Amino acid sequence: MVIFLIKSGDYITRKSYQNDMVFVVLSVKNNIVYLKGVNDRLYADSPLEDCQIVDKNILNDDFIPPGIKEQNLTRDDYFYIPAKILHLDGDSEYLNRCMNFYKENKVFAIGRKIEEDMLASSITEYLEEVKPDIVIITGHDAYLRKKGDKKDLNNYKNSKNFVQAVKQARKYEKSHEKLIIIAGACQSNYEELIKAGANFASSPKRVNIHALDPAIIAVSIALTKKSEEVNLIELLSKTKNGALGIGGIMCNGMMYVGYPR
To answer: Which one, 34, 108, 151, 255, has the greatest CB density within 10 A?
Structure first.
């Protein structure tokens, strides 16, 4: 049967989920296919017979990031210094996409690929080195519904790792105004991430988030003046699933404005 031809690197959808999402195959073991979302920050697995191969050459991402670049900058006698971003990511492919997004929007960002279980032990070192205004803590996650209560951090793939990393970042900088923390991935435990000290986190309704969603939040804040409050509803609406996927607390922008140019 054709299903036995599925191998690492193939792109597939899951029939039982109405082929709603495209994954790349990480490995196949004992007729179980281990998967990573192509555009969504999600790990999953599936029985071999439930997988359907799709042609990666015709694959399109239906989410188009909003035009953010220089949204708040006017060409007058003032000069503008956008916030500095530190992006820590468990996935190198997603990280590269986000770094390109920062470059397109002319925002300075430093990215590091770090396994999710190493985030908490290494984040302070990177914060001290980079001294960012905004830090992103992300990678992959999943709510393991079969294990039970969504309030239990043990029922998530990586939420506990993200929570521990946020707590370490808050030890480094206690003020929510001086360091903006954006944390989580697909289906992450939103409430625990906010309690730990994140300004923005996924996922209020335990839905998937797009690979670029954390970067969209960061760039929007980085290009908003410090004197201006960020429109929270408008900001969240720029992400793929809006407030279903990411929520947060009100804050001001992080961009300095000077005079003269």
So the answer is: 255
